[in-house]
Structures are given as structure tokens and as C-alpha cells.
Specification:
The chain is of the alpha/beta class. It has helices at 31-35, 37-57, 75-85, 98-105, 111-118, 126-140, 151-163, 168-191, 211-220, 257-268, 275-283, 297-306, 310-313, 324-327, 333-340, 347-394, 396-399, 406-428, 431-446, 448-452, 471-483, 492-554, 561-591, 593-618, 627-652; strands at 4-5, 20-25, 66-68, 89-94, 143-147, 195-200, 225-229, 236-239, 252-253, 287-288, 488-490.
Length: 661
């Protein structure tokens, strides 16, 4: 008997929903912001009070709220101060290292002031010093994720632009460099958040990385935006799409406590999440240490027709599932070592990824594999039993009289009853639905570590949607959202190590897996196709043989008794061979091996392209690697994985376990 464990490890509870907000807005120099600063601060305070009231309603079933900010002086720090006063977590994906971030956002007027700020020293200008101190104090209380690999180049551009204040080309060069970094940090912030709060006057176009640009980025990724009009701070509007920016007057107003509270409550409790019911079921699923032989029919078909030799075709199929407690020191040991040994990495964060993500992956993967065997193995067994029922039902013809038919009829009845029982049990236990759901969870977690160490996430509006339930996406998003950003200062060594030890290894392993899978499934498809055709050809030959025998006997060339004596045997062959051929064709249709082979082939090709891009980047000169390049590759792998999941669901989504008719 396979060993059975009772529940998921005790350290892995249900993920607590956490509201993650991002802030963007004008700096102090903006006229509307400067004139209405107090009113803006009051509106932000009111919004945060509403969030706290919604969190309190959860009765302890939620994590502390988290604010993401780039720590720019102005609207950002207004929100940060309000969040820190409530003991919220503050996470800062900085577009530069902290010192450079301060040197830029404190707005020094001379190169000497900027140089002093870069060195962490004080400056003589009280206004500049006040801004620098405000940013530094906020940073000391925040979790920093610093994009510092281009700091030397940007710092030099800053100093040159201040030294030559009248040189517009130098000023433009610095502005372009800084703006692209701010836009990148803004995207990280948005990807980690449920919504963006934007303090904007509604007219200032702004540059790349500015307030309006950040709003557009959020809306394009499906992240809703609460717009606080800097010119009318009590006017709150909800933006859902980039097109809303062209009809600001028509946007939905958040003009009552009930509407605002309802909006935030909907983030905590989305109606399509089914979190309370199915996520709890996921955590209380029965764990099986090994696969069950009674469910091996599908995998035996794969082995028989997809194996490249006798040893593979008749290999043992019993599979032991890796437990969540063992994965970190087992199959995930190499990944854990790579994450913990990244130069300048966050070892505590890596350990959390091992506990929170890799263990959940092992749990979901083991459950899904078992349920896959149950669902697909049960359906393949049904096809085989249906053919056997027909064959047994008529097998009395060549060997027994009609009076002796009852044992054959009894066996036929038992075979048919078995089909009904397998179908009923499969539907009652939701083998198909539970397999789909647990597999989605497993695949989201499989590649999550390579994204987490880069601060890369799938934006709230970009998660796939299941056909009948959204809890796997909600569950995975909440787990990954809870981890947040690692506390790191990214430099060239960090990027190169992540690129080589994590991204390249993951892309290479997944590409090899899908290439092998595509070849194997193609062999299965062609093997089943050939066998079913052969059986139908044999059926045709058996019928043709009987007709030929009858014709020859009628011509007197053969004894007249021969057709009568062999008619039952020919009838048996004429019925059993097509029945068996039909069952094989049904298995081929149900398994859709050809389409799955195509999906894996396309996935492997996409991963090979990413792998080639990684190889090219690794040959780049030291110091030329940038965060945007590596993050883009991580996003690319994420998109490939999600696309593969969606394609896979489209194939098997409607194939519920059923009587094979």
C-alpha cells in the first residue's frame, strides 16, 4: 500500500490576503500639488483609514498592508509617512542605489552638493538637506530593492549636467538615463501591487517614468488606478483602462464611503476566487506517497507507444512523489544553493522562497500527478473495458452454445458496471477539476523562484482566468505577493549570477523536458494511429475472408459446410477487431497526443530562443549587463509558461471523465 500523509506541512498555512498599494504623484515643485499639499495629505490619510477599516473587518485573516514607493520627494513621501504612521510595511524598488536616489531626488543645484549627497554627507542648502534627510529617514524604515548596476554611469551624467548647467545635451542625456530607470522601477512597483494611487493634476503630460506615464503603465497591465486630482484633492476617480485618460470627466467617481470600502473589499474577496472552499480543500487533500497501480493505464499507454526501446516500454511505472519536507534538500537543492549564493543576495529571502514556494510546489505537484493518473488512467481504462465488454459478450459464439452464454454475459455486465462505477467515482471526486486546479498551482510555483529573486511579478490584471474557478490564480498570487521584494542592491555580479545559475538553468531544463515530451507524445500518437488502422484492416480482411469462403463454397470449390462452421469465428473477429480498434482510436482522441506534442514543441522552441538570448548576454563584456535585459527574459519565460498552461487547458478543459460512447 502507498503511504498516506494527512495534510500539508504545518508551516504552510493558507496565504493571508494582503492589500498592496503603489503610489505615484507630483513632486513638491508642481503648482497644484504645492497649493493643495495639506488637502492631498488628508485625502491620502482618509484612503488609508478606509483600508485599515477593511483589514480590521477580516478579523485577523489578512496580512499587514504594504505600500510600494520609489521614495521621490513629494507625493511619494506623503503616502510613505502616512503608511509608516500605521505601521504598514513599506517596500521601495529604487531606480538607483540609495545614495544616488537621494542625490537626484533631493534636487541639488550644484555638482558639489550632488557629490556630497552621493557620499552620504550633508550639504549647506537647508532645503536640499531637508529633502535628503526626509528620503533617508524613510529609506531607513523601508525594505529597499535597489537597481544600482548603472549607478556609476548615471552619477557621472548627473554631475556633468550640474557642472554644465547650460548644456542642454548633457541635461537631456542625464534625463533620458534617469527617466528610463524610474520607469523600470515603476513597473516593478506596479507588478507587485493590487492598485496604484496616483496624485496627478490631470493635465501635466510628464516624461517617461513620470506620473502620467506610470498611470498608463498600470492601466496597460490591468492594474486599477485611484486618481486623486491634485487640483481638487477631494475628487477621487477610478481608472480601469488607458482610454479612461481621454475621458477623465466620465470616469467612475469614488464619492462615498460605501463605494470606496466596497472597492477595497473586492480586492480582498474577489467573487471568482472560491478561496474559502477550494483552497481549503487543496490544503486538506489526502497525500499519497506513491502512485497507484490501478491508475497506471494512461502512463502504460505512453510507455508502450512512446518508449524508445523495450526497456522503456515495459519499465516499472510506480512513482514516488517528493514530499514538501524533502524538496529543498532533494530536487530543489541546486536551485536553493544558487539562490542563496548569488553575490549580494538576500539569503533570508531565498530561505523563505524555499519554504513558501518550493514546498507548496511539491505539494501541488504530488497531488496533481496523482489526480492526473486517476482521471486519465480512469478514462483510458474505460475505453479498454468497453472494448473488452463487447469482445467478451460475443466470445461465446466460437466456443459455446446459446444456452452457455450466461457466464459471458455476466462478465460483460461486470465490465460495463465497472465503467459506470469509474465514471461515477471520477465525477463525484472531481478528478478532472482537481487535477486542473492543482496543476495550475504547481506550474505557477515551478518557475516562480527565478522571478522572485529579480523582483519580477505578473501584474494583477495579467493573470490567466480559469474556465470555472479562479482560486488557483488567486492562491498563487497571494503567496507570491506575500513574499514581496528581496532586500538587495542589484549590481552586475548579481545579474550575471542570476542569469547564468537560475534563468539559463531553468530555461535549459524546461526546453529539454518539452523537447523530450514532444518526441515521446508524437511517437504515442503515431503508434496508436498505426495500431487502430491495423485492427480495422484486420477486421476488413476477416469479413472479406468470410465472404470469399462463402463465394468459393457456392461455386463448389470448397465444401458447403465450411462457411457455416466458421461463421461464428468470423463474426467474433468482425466485431471484436473494430471494437478494439475503436477503443484505441478513442484513447488517441482522448489523449490528444498530437496536439500536446505540438504544444510542447512550440514551448521548447520559445524556450530555446530565450536560452539563446541568455547565452548572448553572458558573452557581453563585464559591466554591460543591465537589469531591464534580465528582467525581460524572466518575463519572457513567465509568458511562455502561462501560454503553455492556457493551451493545455484549452485541450483538456472540456474532456470530463465519461462513459466512452
Amino acid at each position: 500500500m502507498a503511504g498516506i500523509g494527512a495534510h500539508i506541512p504545518d508551516n504552510l498555512g493558507l496565504p493571508l490576503p494582503r492589500l498592496c498599494l503603489a503610489i505615484t504623484g507630483h513632486r513638491e515643485a508642481n503648482t497644484a500639488f504645492a497649493q493643495n499639499r495639506s488637502a492631498i495629505a488628508a485625502t491620502v490619510t482618509h484612503l488609508f483609514d478606509t483600508v485599515d477599516s477593511i483589514v480590521a473587518r477580516q478579523g485577523g485573516n489578512s496580512a499587514p498592508s504594504r505600500l510600494f514607493s520609489l521614495l521621490a520627494h513629494g507625493a511619494d513621501l506623503v503616502a510613505v509617512d502616512a503608511a509608516l504612521a500605521r505601521q504598514w510595511e513599506v517596500s521601495a524598488p529604487l531606480p538607483f542605489g540609495l545614495d544616488l536616489n537621494i542625490a537626484i531626488n533631493a534636487e541639488p543645484s550644484t555638482a558639489e552638493e550632488a557629490q556630497a549627497l552621493l557620499q552620504g554627507a550633508s550639504v549647506g542648502d537647508p532645503a536640499v538637506e531637508k529633502r535628503a534627510r526626509h528620503i533617508r529617514d524613510a529609506a531607513a524604515k523601508a525594505d529597499l530593492f535597489e537597481l544600482a548596476e548603472a549607478d556609476d554611469e548615471i552619477a557621472q551624467a548627473l554631475l556633468l549636467s550640474l557642472q554644465h548647467g547650460n548644456d542642454w545635451q548633457l541635461a537631456r542625456s542625464f534625463s533620458d538615463l534617469a527617466s528610463s530607470r524610474v520607469a523600470m522601477a515603476g513597473r516593478i512597483m506596479i507588478e507587485q501591487s493590487d492598485l496604484l494611487i496616483a496624485i496627478w493634476d490631470g493635465v501635466t503630460p510628464g516624461a517617461v517614468g513620470g506620473t502620467r506615464h506610470t498611470i498608463v503603465t498600470a492601466l496597460e497591465t490591468g492594474t486599477p488606478v485611484i486618481w486623486i486630482n491634485a487640483a481638487q484633492p477631494t475628487r477621487l476617480a477610478l481608472l480601469h483602462s488607458p482610454e479612461d485618460l481621454y475621458s477623465l470627466g466620465q470616469c467612475r467617481l469614488l464619492d462615498s464611503e460605501e463605494i470606496i470600502a466596497g472597492f477595497f473589499d473586492g480586492i480582498f474577496n474577489p467573487p471568482e476566487a472560491d478561496q474559502d472552499e477550494r483552497a481549503i480543500q487543496f490544503h486538506t487533500e489526502q497525500w499519497h506517497m506513491m502512485s497507484a497501480r490501478r491508475f497506471h493505464a494512461y502512463r502504460r499507454i505512453e510507455a508502450l507507444f512512446g518508449g524508445s526501446g523495450l526497456r522503456q516500454r515495459f519499465s516499472r511505472l510506480r512513482q514516488r512523489y517528493e514530499t514538501p519536507d524533502n524538496i529543498v534538500s532533494g530536487s530543489g537543492a541546486g536551485l536553493m544553493e544558487a539562490m542563496r549564493n548569488v553575490p549580494g543576495g538576500d539569503k533570508a529571502f531565498a530561505d523563505r522562497v524555499g519554504r513558501e514556494v518550493m514546498q507548496r510546489f511539491a505539494w501541488a505537484d504530488g497531488l496533481s500527478t496523482y489526480l492526473s493518473d486517476a482521471y486519465r488512467g480512469g478514462m483510458v481504462t474505460n475505453f479498454i473495458l468497453s472494448a473488452l465488454a463487447i469482445i467478451v459478450g460475443i466470445s461465446y459464439l466460437p466456443v459455446a452454445s446459446v444456452d452457455a452464454k450466461w457466464p459471458f454475459a455476466l462478465v460483460e455486465f461486470l465490465l460495463l458496471a465497472s465503467i459506470v462505477a469509474i465514471t461515477a467515482i471520477g465525477r463525484k471526486r472531481r478528478w478532472h477539476g482537481r487535477w486542473f486546479e492543482t496543476r495550475r498551482v504547481a506550474e505557477y510555483f515551478r518557475h516562480a523562484p527565478i522571478m522572485l529573486v529579480l523582483g519580477v511579478a505578473r501584474a494583477s490584471g495579467r493573470w490567466p482566468r480559469g474556465a470555472d474557478t479562479g482560486w488557483p490564480e488567486f492562491y498563487a498570487k497571494e503567496v507570491l505577493r506575500d513574499l514581496g521584494l528581496p532586500k538587495i542592491r542589484i549590481d552586475h555580479d548579481y545579474l550575471r549570477a542570476v542569469l547564468e545559475k537560475l534563468l539559463l538553468r531553468h530555461a535549459s531544463n524546461q526546453r529539454a523536458y518539452h523537447e523530450d515530451k514532444a518526441r515521446r507524445l508524437a511517437r504515442v500518437h503515431h503508434g496508436l494511429d498505426h495500431l487502430s488502422e491495423t485492427l480495422f484492416k484486420l477486421a476488413v480482411l476477416s469479413v472479406a475472408g468470410y465472404l470469399a469462403l462463402l463465394a468459393l463454397a457456392s461455386l463448389g470449390w470448397l465444401p458447403a459446410s465450411w462457411p457455416h462452421a466458421t461463421s461464428k469465428s468470423f463474426t467474433f473477429l468482425g466485431v471484436s477487431l473494430p471494437a478494439l480498434g475503436g477503443a484505441i482510436a478513442g484513447i488517441r482522441y482522448f489523449g490528444d497526443f498530437e496536439r500536446f506534442a505540438s504544444i510542447s514543441e512550440i514551448t521548447a522552441e520559445k524556450l530555446a530562443e530565450v536560452e539563446a538570448r541568455i547565452q548572448i548576454l553572458l558573452t557581453a563584456p563585464m559591466g554591460s549587463l543591465h537589469y531591464a535585459q534580465v528582467a525581460s527574459l524572466a518575463h519572457g519565460i513567465d509568458d511562455i509558461v502561462v501560454s503553455e498552461i492556457e493551451n493545455w487547458q484549452s485541450v483538456f478543459g472540456s474532456k470530463q471523465i465519461a462513459v466512452p460512447v
